[in-house]
Automatic annotation (TrEMBL):
PROSITE patterns with a match to the protein in the record: RRNA_A_DIMETH (PS01131)
The keyword S-adenosyl-L-methionine is annotated on this UniProt entry: yes
Species assigned in the record: Wuchereria bancrofti
InterPro entries assigned: Arg_MeTrfase (IPR025799), rRNA_Ade_Mease_Trfase_CS (IPR020596), SAM-dependent_MTases_sf (IPR029063)
Residue spans of biased composition, Basic and acidic residues class: 450-463
A GO molecular-function annotation: protein-arginine N-methyltransferase activity
Name by which UniProt lists this protein: Methyltransferase domain-containing protein
Length: 786
């Protein structure tokens, strides 16, 4: 027995997890169940490592080991959780779901929380909130059903392929109307499993580009393609490439149009651009359309957001214009998009004064002549969001100006950039050029919210008026002034920070909270007459906050870490402060003597410093364990816990997290999380009922919109931050709701102006729990951020 235990632990130390599991099972065969439990934790740790250790290999042996472990530990929640994690890692999500569901039903305490977390993570990876919103869009489903019926009435003998079937909804509708076989394909293997349950037939488990005539059981070609592979910018899911391939190979011989307008919205600018230390920083969505090479590999060409949910609303500044059109029935048009790309210019007349922050785009699609048109404009309430192209720099525009938009469509990308501003020969307009715009309060142009006039931090940092240098363009008797937006905004000088949270960096209230808190701690330290250096460890991963603190407290010694350190390092003095990538993130480690893309030398990071070394001598830890989407960040909380284990005396800012909850009613959010059978055109999708997700995030809470006047708020969590374990936070809250919502408790209401937002969905009716997270510093009652 001792030999088997030694061999198991030795194999685990060598990361031979399969062998380790087998040795443990040899050990367990000679033990009673209670004796086996003594080694259960280390055995489960081995099971959890098996999937990640053998990525890409044959998992049949590991699966057999998991099945044997269930025989040895029947109904043991930790073994079920380990099995769920294994199947999740190897991509077999429905099997992972079954294990996690069984673990939830047969566990309690911490194991139950683990199982709940696993279950929610698995469900959201199978069908996330976007998928539920699409599936529950009644107008979308009705439009497709109408188009399918019209085509079937016209050509009932057609051979049909549903490309990207998902749950099989459209395939089921098509099979009602067409007399011949309706085929469907799906590249996501987990969705294939779901579709096969619903359709009771095999799905072609391939991408459409890999399908051959043999897959559809005949030498005859397909007559009708059904597909809903359109994202908010039309091309983003690769519909042009897929249809061109189908046209070329297996389709025998419907137009879509993209529209856009220029809008004013400080909230969008705060989401994507931040200015500090004389530099402009932005997310990749800002610079994508201004890329010198014209195409992107990994960057997202636009930001997807529902216009109706933009914080503070938005104001339309230009006419809505057509910027791109494609006939999906035309092989020639698809060829251009897929092989050479299409570049065009479009003119957008400015119809009212304002400060331009973004270009907003949407599309309409004719599914079939006579069928309802799919329309994703901001006025609609369907599942599609709008495509937003944030401008690199806000710019004042006046009525009568004309903006030139440069459009490029290539494969699955649709890029849209502001190119020029044309100032017509109008004395009044010419006089206004260079002057800030006054806000227009017309109800018909102010869409949702009451704060569209509020000035963003970005606008304050840099004037947004047009540059004084202009180019004159003579055309007959008229003289227009043309202003190059590229020269004005200098997008080539913008530094992209893909790993920093822009709404948090632009939140002055949050930054002031940290500055006041640090000042109070320093003042308290001074009262103790400590004549020594004061050390601060900053792991907040917010570049603007780090810069602000370093500049505000030059007498302190800072060690700052950031996932975008190589793009920010030139703003720090290496002789005074330590600044670099997180040493526990191997992807961020920088080599000696290397140079950033901006030409600045990098601080040496080999051998890497660890924040554990910094922790031992630090007086204060600065952290930001909450994202602007309302998430408690597991990585940040783990770092806080590691810090506290090595330093029990230092202050932590914030020292406490409080979570407030309030019952609200919001049917729209429920449609993004749960089944809505009335939207499914009579198709039975009950196989997906258990996949409904139990939490929804990244929404705004407004008193006028979601808040119930009779609802009562209450504190559901109020824990010291070092003791908080991030993965369990959501489920701990759910457990407490059922006990607390029956008894009204008084607590300050949720603030509508906070950047922090989070909503958790209850599992019945349309009631949800809206949560707001507050950061608190214990040393003074005045330092609260909520």
């Amino acid at each position: 027995m001792r030999l088997a235990l030694w061999e198991a632990r030795h194999a685990a130390a060598l990361k031979n997890y399969d062998d380790a599991a087998r040795f443990y099972m040899t050990l367990f065969n000679d033990l009673e169940l209670e004796e086996r439990r003594k080694y259960l934790d280390e055995f489960v740790a081995v099971l959890e490592e098996m999937g990640s250790a053998n990525g890409g290999s044959d998992y049949s042996k590991q699966i057999m080991l998991l099945l044997q472990s269930r025989v040895l530990f029947p109904h043991e929640a930790t073994v079920l959780n380990a099995s769920a994690k294994f199947f999740f890692v190897v991509g077999r999500l429905l099997e992972a779901f079954d294990f996690a569901q069984e673990a939830v039903s047969g566990s309690e305490g911490l194991s139950h929380i683990y199982a709940l977390v696993n279950l929610e993570n698995i469900k959201s990876n199978i069908m996330d909130q976007w998928h539920w919103a699409m599936l529950n869009d009644m107008n979308r489903n009705a439009a497709y059903a109408s188009a399918i019926e019209l085509v079937a009435n016209w050509r009932p003998e057609s051979r049909v392929l549903d490309m990207g079937t998902g749950t099989g909804l459209l395939t089921s509708i098509a099979r009602r109307h067409f007399k011949r076989d309706v085929y469907c394909c799906e590249v996501d293997l987990n969705m294939c499993d779901i579709a096969e349950k619903i359709l009771n037939e095999a799905v072609i488990r391939k991408h459409s580009s890999e399908i051959t005539l043999e897959d559809i059981g005949s030498e005859k070609v397909i007559d009708v393609i059904i597909t809903e592979t359109m994202d908010c910018g039309l091309l983003g899911e690769g519909i042009a490439c897929s249809l061109y391939d189908i046209h070329t190979r297996i389709l025998s011989s419907s137009p879509a149009t993209v529209y856009a307008c220029i809008i004013e919205s400080t909230a969008i600018m705060d989401e994507h651009v931040s200015v500090f230390c004389g530099c402009r920083f932005a997310s990749d969505s800002v610079t994508a359309s201004y890329n010198a090479y014209g195409t992107l590999d990994e960057l997202e060409p636009y930001w997807c957001c529902s216009a109706a949910e933009i914080r503070g609303g938005y104001k339309i500044l230009s006419k809505a214009i057509e910027i791109f059109a494609v006939n999906f029935d035309s092989r020639a048009e698809l060829y251009k998009i897929v092989n050479t790309g299409i570049t065009e210019l479009r003119m957008a007349p400015i119809i009212r004064d304002g400060t331009a922050h973004c270009i907003m785009a949407w599309f309409s699609c004719v599914l079939f002549p006579g069928a309802p048109v799919l329309n994703t404009s901001p006025e609609t309430t369907g599942c599609w969001q709008q495509a937003l192209y944030p401008l690199p720099k806000p710019i004042s525009l006046h009525r009568g100006c004309i903006c030139t938009l440069k459009i490029k469509a290539y494969k699955d990308q649709l890029l849209c950039a502001l190119r020029d501003i044309v100032i017509p020969e109008d004395s009044e307009i010419a006089e206004n050029v260079g002057q800030p715009c006054s806000s227009d309060n017309d109800n018909n142009i102010l869409l949702k919210g009451k704060n569209v006039e509020q000035e963003s931090k970005v606008d304050k940092d840099e004037n947004s008026v047009l540059p004084s240098k202009r180019t004159r363009h003579d055309s007959g008797t008229s003289t227009n002034m043309i202003i190059s937006y590229k020269n004005y905004a200098s997008p080539d000088t913008i530094i992209v920070l893909p790993n920093n949270d822009f709404p948090m960096m632009n939140d002055n209230q949050l930054i002031n909270f940290f500055m006041r808190s640090l000042a109070d701690i320093k003042r308290q330290d001074g009262m103790l007459n400590r004549n020594r250096d004061f050390y601060v460890l900053d792991i907040a991963n917010l570049g603007a906050l780090s810069i602000a603190l370093v500049n505000a407290f030059p007498e302190m010694k800072f060690s700052c870490y950031n996932n975008d350190a190589h793009k920010l390092v030139h703003l720090f003095s290496p002789h005074t402060h330590n600044f670099g990538a997180f040493p526990d993130n191997q992807d961020s480690l920088l080599t000696d003597g290397s140079i950033t893309e901006n030409g600045y030398p990098l601080i040496s990071s080999k051998p890497p410093r660890t924040y554990f070394e910094d922790a031992e001598c630090s007086d204060v830890l600065i952290c930001c364990p909450v994202s602007s989407h309302g998430f408690l960040l597991e990585t940040s909380l783990n770092r806080v816990l590691s810090f506290r284990l090595s330093n029990g005396q230092a202050h932590i800012i914030p020292a406490k997290i409080s979570v407030m909850g309030q019952i609200v009613n919001c049917p729209d959010i429920v449609k993004r999380c749960k089944p809505c059978p009335s939207a499914y055109q009579g198709v039975d999708l009950s196989a997906i009922n258990d996949l409904a997700i139990s939490f929804y995030y990244d929404i705004e809470v407004y008193y006028s919109g979601l808040m119930s006047k009779v609802a009562n708020s209450c504190t559901v969590l109020d824990l010291p931050i070092p003791l908080l374990v991030a993965p369990y936070i959501y489920l701990m809250q759910i457990e407490k709701y059922q006990k607390m919502i029956v008894s009204p408790l008084n607590h300050p209401a949720i603030m509508a102006t906070s950047h922090l937002k989070y909503c958790d969905i209850m599992k019945t009716s349309n009631l949800i729990i809206a949560l707001q997270i507050s950061l608190r510093l214990i040393v003074t009652a005045n330092c609260n951020y909520s």
